[in-house]
Write a structure and sequence with these properties.
The chain is an all-beta fold. The protein contains no helices and six strands. Helices cover about 0% and strands about 70% of the residues.
């Protein structure tokens, strides 16, 4: 589990490789993941093999890989 904090204009590139999915839990703030809106309390599953994706906005999130 990794905790990430982004500022209003920050963007981070993440990846879901073939071996593992990524789970994003927004613990505060708001933003987007590949253009989809996220806000506090949202949970988003990026399937294994999805590849690279961008998260941006002013938010705090937990990123889990299994």
């Amino acid at each position: 589990v990794h905790r990430l904090s982004l500022g209003r204009r920050d963007t981070v590139q993440l990846a879901a490789g073939a071996e593992s999915f990524q789970h994003i839990l927004v613990t505060d703030g708001y933003g987007t993941i590949d253009g989809r809106l996220l806000q506090k309390g949202d949970s988003f599953l990026v399937p294994a093999g999805y590849g690279n994706f961008a998260v941006s906005g002013q938010l705090e999130m937990l990123v889990t890989s299994i």
